Amino acid sequence: MEQPLDVPELSATGGFTLRPWRLTDLPLVREASDDAYIPLITTVPSACTEPEGVAFVERQWARAATGAGYPFVVVNPDGRPVGQVGLWLKNLDQGRASLGYWVVESARGQGTAAAAVRAVACWALRDLRIPRLELWVEPWNTASLRTAERCGFRREGLLRQWQRVGKERRDMVMYALLDGES
């Protein structure tokens, strides 16, 4: 077993904070499960019962406990959880990690994702000394494309049929941020 990870609390611009998951975050999981897209591309359950919501939160804890990555809840300045950013370490032995993020519909358009992604990316590059961060975005998802670019990630290319989304394989745009570029 890998060493357990300690998911820290991070401050982000705009008064956002990032912290570990709690069982009190079940309303966030329920809201995300109602989204047409989030359950397709993440492990958020598509019809969230309380046991499924608890299982989702426990999976986030397990990811940190097994060393798979750092799952953060994004909290807005009013104290309401509004999204997730994950720093996933699957390819850390090759000098790279990946980020994934989502924000519930009621909190979109407020700079939430950019503030959260920027905070995690800076922390990963500076404190964890990960040389390369990657993320993948579907070409149609202009809001996420803009978020990646606002955070300093550079577009590297189109990966055809890179990822399964729902029942089909879809193209993804590959972005990367290297140490020294943030």
TrEMBL record:
PROSITE patterns: GNAT. SUPFAM superfamilies: Acyl-CoA N-acyltransferases (Nat) (SSF55729). Residues 16-179 form the N-acetyltransferase domain. It holds the Pfam family Acetyltransf_3. Gene3D superfamilies: 3.40.630.30. InterPro entries: Acyl_CoA_acyltransferase, GNAT_dom, Ribosomal_N-acetyltransferase. This is GNAT family N-acetyltransferase.
